[in-house]
Design brief:
heterodimer; A: three-stranded antiparallel beta sheet; 9 strands; globular; B: mainly alpha; Formate dehydrogenase/DMSO reductase fold; 13 helices
């Protein structure tokens, strides 16, 4: 039990820390592509200057993302060996594809993006920027595909090794204690695995979240410069690009992807949805609780409710009931796993197949509230922009708005973390939904003390890393963009550079 | 040749790529503190600046390929070598961070701390990689459930520690040759002076290492008897390493570096050919070993992965080569440098 908790805490801690950075890189990657495209199109050195500045911020987030990302790949094997043996056939191929298609692309072209300004011409540099951005998106695709397979497994069958020979198991086989280490999931259909029922919805949701993270970082830093009255022209241009990008991704996220993802969850993982909304009883006109507290003992949810709203959001119909936790998982499902149990016993067993309801409820609602707040902020900011007030720092309302925009960088970060918590905690007690339990997936060779030791080590290292990140980011913001363009004139044509590498400076 | 053998080779190629590429930047790290001037240290850092990150991806992809093709081996080794791998991870993080942050501030104490962090984490990473390899060669105690049954201290046996030291020396030699290729002037002269000595020490270690392996690891002798041509590879390997000082003295650093790369490939090949068909040898109960058959994914996955590799690897090689080409020539310091 302690091993399980420690292993889960370690994974949660390392992935949370890691997940601060890749979304920033993915979002900033798109911003860099836009800025360099504008520069190539208009030839205005302003955009060049912007691209250079935001590349420096990008480099920082990317470096920490890489450093903390290797940890994640190792941890499947180190802490979750039984899981790795079980899913290696499927999960491993997604990870390997990520390495070959995404990581090499990113890290290779990153060299040109960061150090190639004087080595290659503008067009080739732009190409490299596109490739880095594409690589970052590929990596999101493969890892979300792998995770979505854990949420909604598809395109596989189970097989058991008996006397050294694999034997195919019948569909609906329940993995028991005797199966651990000898049963594994084997791929049937690669594309069914890749396009499992939840991967497209979840990928859209994650990518939009990443774009928001990058866009609001640009918005936040630009707003800071505007408030301080520094680098005004630079800040205005960056704000325009950043705000437009933030607006598009926030509107798509909150307006479309959010409800689509929820519809997918109710279809594929009804228990998770019921926990997210704190629904215990199945009733028509299922209400939606805006915020509140779930008492798991009394099965009561406090807080303001809108009757029928949840039914409407999920089924586009106020009356259709959303199935509550007291009917989930179904009796059939429980009978299969607990043959011979009486109806009363089943009622007792049922909650052991639920995630922590209040926790799931809270993280989900944090995501929703923060997302809605960001949408509101974006709408106000767009209105100010439209009326021409956005840069009028002499107006008190503009100053308030800019201050809110400075803080807005935290919004996507909180929502991204809370969203992942909802997805992962809401899947418990399963690691692979309704197939393999988290508690059965640990490394048998690893003891609790070892995990504790490494957890302490990571806590120390990551605290240091975070302090350095904030310190360096602050320094970069303080330093601001370079104003003198002349010292680093770009060459006229990249062909001449390719032929003769510049050896001076 | 079946899919399992193909994947044994492919995983081997990925880890060889890692050894050859990250080998030189780990080696540059090992030598970092021996260079005293700040400008020289920055040149060393920037010689690997654009490429170290991509080099590390070979480890990530190698790990991913191992997970995909031989999940049992991945799970057994990674959970079995738990603390060693956690230390390796922390070293790799510190290295990345040290490279990134060292030159951000001009203060002496700041740079000194990161220089030490960079150098020690590079040395310790190389050492741990060597220790892991040494244990794979010796064999580790596995149960019938294919789980590692030893402890962390079992991994620190004299043979594996010696293997680790040899690896540090190998990478340091490789890194020195790389630096002499990428720099000029004082720094190049300084590092060039070290190379013959590094090669001498390395060859001495390499010689002892081979003897030690034959004496300490029982299966190697019989494996070599069955495959006597392994001796030919080892001999060519020694000749190629001896070629390095010759090229250096003629001022052809690129050929020296190429020799060093080929030498490392041959070393990995020697390992792969003698170790085949095992993925993880179990010692003392050989029956519990993981081979390329009982540790592998299904044939279907191996086939799908092969398609992915056939599409992906040529593209990767093409742009990796172009990036090395774009950054060829001597390293210079600019305002974007580390």
């Amino acid at each position: 039990m302690t091993t399980e908790i420690l292993a889960r805490v370690q994974f949660a801690f390392t992935i949370m820390f890691h997940y601060i950075y890749p979304p920033l890189s993915i979002g900033l990657g798109v911003v860099l592509v836009m800025m360099e495209a504008l520069w190539l199109k208009t030839g205005n050195p302003k955009f060049h200057n912007m691209a250079r500045y935001w590349t420096r911020i990008f480099a920082l987030t990317f470096a920490i993302g890489v450093a903390t990302g290797i940890v994640m790949e190792f941890e499947f094997g180190t802490n979750w060996a039984t899981y790795s043996r079980f899913v290696g056939d499927i999960f491993g191929s997604a990870l390997a594809a990520e390495g070959i298609f995404a990581f090499f692309l990113e890290s290779g072209f990153l060299a040109i993006l960061l150090f190639g300004w004087n080595k290659v011409g503008p067009k080739l540099h732009f190409f490299a920027t596109c490739m880095v951005c594409l690589g970052a998106h590929f990596s999101a695709i493969w890892i979300v595909v792998a995770n979505s397979w854990m949420q909604t497994p598809a395109g596989y069958h189970l097989e058991k090794v008996v006397d050294g020979k694999p034997v195919r198991l019948l569909e609906g086989h329940v993995v028991g204690p005797g199966d651990l280490g000898t049963v594994r999931a084997v791929i049937d259909d690669f594309w069914a695995m890749v396009f499992n029922p939840s991967s497209v919805d979840r990928l859209t949701h994650v990518l939009l979240g990443c774009w928001m993270a990058g866009a609001f970082l640009v918005v936040s830093i630009s707003a800071f410069y505007l408030l301080r009255g520094r680098h005004i022209e630079f800040a205005k241009s960056s704000m325009r690009v950043g705000l437009a990008f933030a607006a598009v991704s926030t509107i798509l996220q909150v307006g479309l992807s959010g409800s689509q993802t929820a519809e997918g969850v109710v279809k594929n993982q009804p228990i998770k949805l019921a926990a997210m909304e704190g629904v215990f009883e199945t009733r028509p006109y299922t209400p939606m609780t805006l915020f509140g507290w779930v008492d798991e003992e009394t099965q009561e949810v406090s807080g303001p409710k809108v009757p029928g709203l949840l039914s409407f959001l999920v089924y586009k119909n106020f009356k259709t009931p959303v199935v509550g936790l007291n009917d989930l998982p179904t009796d059939d499902f429980l009978h299969k796993r607990h043959p011979g149990a009486s109806p009363e016993e089943l009622e007792k067993i049922r909650p052991s197949y639920w995630p922590k309801v209040n926790f799931t409820f809270q993280v989900y609602h944090i995501m929703i509230i923060v997302g809605t707040a960001l949408l509101g902020l974006v709408v106000v900011a767009l209105f100010f922009w439209w009326r021409g007030w956005l840069f009028r720092t002499d107006l008190i309302w503009t100053r308030w708005l800019l201050m809110a925009l400075v803080l807005s960088v935290l919004g996507p970060q909180i929502a991204n973390q809370a969203g992942w918590f909802t997805a992962e905690i809401g899947r418990q007690p399963w690691i692979v939904y309704e197939i393999l339990k988290t508690s059965d997936s640990l490394s048998k060779a690893v003891r609790a003390e070892e995990i504790l030791a490494s957890l302490i080590m990571f806590a120390f290292v990551y605290t240091l890393l975070f302090a350095l990140f904030i310190y360096t980011l602050t320094r970069k913001i303080q330093h601001g963009p370079d104003t003198e363009e002349s010292s680093e004139e770009m060459p006229e044509s990249w062909k001449s550079v390719i032929r003769k590498p510049s050896l001076t400076n | 040749m079946d899919l399992n053998i193909i994947w044994y080779i492919l995983v081997g190629v990925l880890f060889t790529g890692y050894a050859v590429l990250d080998g030189f930047d780990l080696g540059v790290g090992a030598l970092h503190l021996f260079v005293k001037k700040d400008e020289h240290r920055r040149l060393m850092l920037n010689s690997i600046g654009p490429v170290w990150d991509g080099n590390e991806v070979w480890l990530v992809t190698g790990g991913g390929a191992l997970f995909a093709a031989f999940p049992e081996a991945y799970a057994t080794v990674f959970s079995g070598f738990y603390l060693a791998f956690m230390m390796l991870l922390v070293c790799l993080i510190f290295r990345a961070v040290a490279i990134e942050f060292r030159s951000k501030e001009p203060w002496g104490w700041w740079r000194k701390i990161w220089d030490v962090a960079f150098s020690f984490s590079s040395i310790l990473s190389s050492f741990l990689i060597g220790v892991a390899m040494g244990n794979l060669v010796r064999g580790i105690p596995l149960g019938t459930d294919r789980e590692y049954q030893g402890t962390f201290l079992n991994l620190l046996n004299p043979y594996s520690i010696f293997f680790g030291c040899t690896t540090v020396l190998l990478f340091a030699m490789h890194g020195a040759i790389y630096v002499s290729m990428k720099t000029d002037g004082d720094l190049q002269n300084l590092v060039r002076g070290w190379i013959p000595r590094l090669i001498g020490v390395f060859l001495a270690f390499y010689f002892i290492f081979n003897l030690y392996t034959i004496v300490d690891v029982e299966w190697v002798l019989s494996a070599v008897r069955a495959k006597p041509w392994v001796f030919a590879i080892v001999t060519i390997n020694v000749l190629i390493v001896l070629n390095i000082p010759r090229e250096i003295s003629k001022g052809r650093e690129f050929y020296a570096f190429l020799s060093s790369c080929v030498g490392m490939c041959l070393m990995m090949m020697t390992f792969g050919l003698t170790y085949f068909p095992y993925m993880v040898r179990s010692n003392p109960v050989l029956e519990n070993s993981l081979t390329i058959y009982n540790a592998a994914s299904s044939q279907k996955t191996l086939g799908i992965m092969l398609v992915i590799a056939i599409i992906g690897v040529p593209i990767v090689l093409a742009y990796t080569a172009s990036i090395y080409w774009i950054f060829r020539g001597k390293t210079t310091l600019t305002k974007h440098s580390y």
